[in-house]
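Collaborator request, handled under Task 6.
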Amino acid sequence: MTAALPIRQVEKPWGKDVLPVPFKAPEGARIGEIWFEPPAGLPDLLVKYIFTSEKLSVQVHPTDAQTEAKGLGRQGKEECWLIVDAEPGATLGIGFDAPIGADKMREASLDGSIEELMTWHEVAPGDFFYIPANTVHAIGVGVSLIEVQQNSDITYRLYDYGRPRELHLDDGMAVAKGEVYDLARWHKRVPVEGSAVLVDGPLFLLDQVHGRPTAEIAARYPDALLVIPREGTFTVAGDSIAPGGCALAKSLDLVEFPEDGVCLLARACAG
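Structure tokens returned to the collaborator:
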């Protein structure tokens, strides 16, 4: 069995027909997301690349507790974004400029003014944002990013710029927090080189590793993990994995790290 995860290209109305290297869109297709199919050995995480030529919908995701209360099982969705490319002026909308109540948020979703009430953060490669469940968010134009998330497809759309797609205002208002995003807590600048802890639980771990992992980072990955190359070619259980790929390693001992390589390591936390 190959360590490399199967790739699924997902067409989106806001996607791109020209993708950054090493990806290539099929003729006539607008690819918005590239998914790495979660493996049976680590099913709780989903890794994606996202590419935007238009704004994504304003949306929100529930917590595990909220989906369990609705009888949906553990289907909450927390996610994080590492910006890998951004056009000048590219932004992410996360949270609000000032606290907002549910009634006003619903009204703003219906008339489109929610976009103006949100905080739009200008981004550049190396910006990292953690998006807790219940956070209202949207990805702007001209952004390419790596997303690591809980493996759930529950998304409540609050506003979609007039596109003919369903909105989910009742479900969305039930979980959305009209809060200012805590930038100091949830945002980091990640150096091009160097190792850094990006997410430290409680739902999953994510680290950037330059060269071989330090003893401290290695101790965080005692079992199965995902390897997402950023620079250089990695060997996972004998398979060569280059940037644009993602692989499952049954243990860290099965990963060969190039001296100048940079990758992301990820695993779900027990729970």
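The cover message to the collaborator said: "The radius of gyration is 18 Å. The helical segments are 64-69, 102-111, 114-117, 169-175, 183-186, 215-218. Please let us know whether this matches your experimental observations."
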